[in-house]
Specification:
- The protein is mainly beta and 386 residues long.
- It has 2 helices and 22 strands.
- It has a 5-stranded antiparallel sheet with strand order 7-6-5-8-9, with no helix packed on it.
- About 17% of the residues have low confidence.
């Protein structure tokens, strides 16, 4: 039996999106060390905020500010952080219900070990030193057992719910807890800018109630106060890298196919029921659903069945545009494979063009296919393979 091959592969691309007024305000707020949620139709405060009510699907715009402190509702220990994760040292993934919120936010908790983490522990945000308007502006959470919060139910330390979903009792969880990355309270030099929720300290609350962005005292306990969502230089869009690292195992059928390519041979497999030959082989017939065990050598020449002209240069691909990618039905195959066409101007590639593979020294697969000089194939000979 042939060796089953494996190889590390990476799929990576930048993902760009516009944000809108709700998510844009949330990310801009993080840049300004302000955490915003949105009030749903049933009165609950959703953090991170969403544009549409998760129950009624109504559009939501009622932004409120919640505290940078909260309670762990559940967690999992991560002993081996991977590339791109929030912390390089082992940490806990936690769901944190911030004071004033009714939903939990997923992030990392810096802790010396799993024994230092528990459901119900009090935590606070550690802000990143440089903030740009992204979820990474929250560097992580850190333990804050002494942080003020709502009254708790039992040992878990989860704030009790009021009739309207608010927290009852306890000190004001916003005032005095706009902390820096070391856990300290900002001094007089903390820039408040135009953000009414930044730099709030004890004694700053004017007569008549908390300012916009603070937590208002009410009969049911501290309430998240409305926030306009307006900031200087708002974040309107983000570009985030998406990356997937994984190990690919093509299976026995395609391993045999790849190993044959290293010998400059192209192997397909024949279905024992319909007798079609599939290239590359899949190990089973997609039509009949039966295993394909009979190997059949096809090609090396073939016919262009259809094609496209590529006009956008791909990153890390040293091919000048425009160029042509085509589906090629190799002689003896009942399934077309795709490959690049070279050795001919892009505007002369056509359906029915007869081509052959071009190999480079040491390559395990053809670099491209080029015209053979034969007359074009008759349309009826490949129309079923388009």
């Amino acid at each position: 039996m042939s060796e089953v091959l494996t190889a590390p592969l990476v799929v990576e691309f930048p993902f760009t999106r516009s944000l809108g007024p709700v998510v844009g305000a949330f990310l801009t707020g993080l840049r300004e060390r302000t955490v915003l949620g949105v009030r749903a139709r049933d009165g609950r405060v959703v953090v991170p905020p969403v544009e549409y009510d998760p129950v009624t699907a109504d559009e939501l715009r009622d932004l409120v500010e919640v505290a940078p402190t909260g309670t762990v509702t559940t967690w999992a220990w991560n002993p081996s952080p991977r590339r791109g994760q929030p912390l390089a040292d082992p940490f806990a993934w936690v769901l944190v219900r911030l004071d004033g919120a009714d939903t939990a936010l997923l992030h990392a908790l810096a802790a010396p070990g799993p024994d230092a983490v528990r459901t119900g522990m009090r935590v606070r945000i550690r802000w990143a030193a440089e903030r740009t308007g992204a979820i990474t502006d929250i560097a992580c959470f850190e333990p804050a057992e002494g942080a003020a919060g709502g009254a708790t139910d039992g040992a878990a330390g989860v704030p009790r719910e009021g009739a309207n979903g608010s927290r009852r009792g306890g000190a004001n969880p916003l005032r005095g807890h706009n902390v820096d990355g070391r856990g300290g309270i900002p001094g007089e030099g903390d820039p408040g800018g135009g953000n009414p929720g930044r730099g709030i300290r004890e004694g700053d609350v004017p007569e008549g109630g908390a300012p916009e962005g603070g937590m208002r005292e009410a009969a049911g306990g501290p309430q998240p106060a409305p926030h306009s969502g307006q900031f200087d230089d708002p974040v309107t869009g983000i570009t985030a890298p998406a990356r997937l690292d994984y190990t690919y195992a093509p299976g026995r059928a395609q391993s045999r196919y790849i190993q044959a390519l290293a010998e400059r041979r192209t192997l397909g497999e024949r279905c024992p029921a319909c007798r079609k030959v599939y290239v590359p082989p899949r190990g089973a017939c997609p039509t009949c659903g039966v295993a394909t065990g009979e190997q059949v050598e096809v090609g090396p020449r073939g016919t262009v069945t259809t094609f496209c002209i590529v006009n956008i240069k791909a990153r890390n691909l040293d091919i000048e545009v425009p160029y042509v990618y085509a589906h090629i039905a190799l002689d003896g195959a009942d399934l077309a494979l795709h490959a690049r066409i070279g050795g001919i101007p892009y505007d002369q590639v056509r359906m029915g063009l007869r081509v052959e593979p071009v190999w480079t020294e040491g390559a395990r697969f053809p670099d491209h296919y080029r015209p053979t000089g034969e007359p074009d194939a008759d349309y009826d000979s490949y129309k079923e393979l388009i």
